[in-house]
Amino acid sequence: MTQPPASRPPNPIAAGLAGRCPRCGEGRLFRGFLTVAPHCEVCGLDFNFIDAADGPAFFVMTFSGFIVVAAALIVEVLYQPPFWVHAVLWLPLILITTLLPIRPLKGLLIALQYRHKAAEQQFRSDRGT
Question: How far apart, in whole angstroms, are the C-alpha atoms of residue 74 and residue 5?
Fold first, then answer.
């Protein structure tokens, strides 16, 4: 059952981070962990416009890389532990800093894409010579 969108759109940051529909703020945006639903079950918005591409992964990898590499360098310089200690410390940290933020960040980028009507660049060939 589809309802008309709310008169006031939801905050795109709150809706995106919560994984909610960018138009109504109530329907679920994701069907799986990162799989986007085909449409909103509340307002009926078709999610075919979504093209987050590699944006969320890029931001998460950059954030995670800074944290893990900085921490590993500090531990190496201060304590010089064996390699197995590095594996025990940094593998869980890599999983935490990549898997926890990826879904909220993808939702945020999708909501901002909807809010700003972002789309793939269209080139027009109607230039005069």
Answer: 51
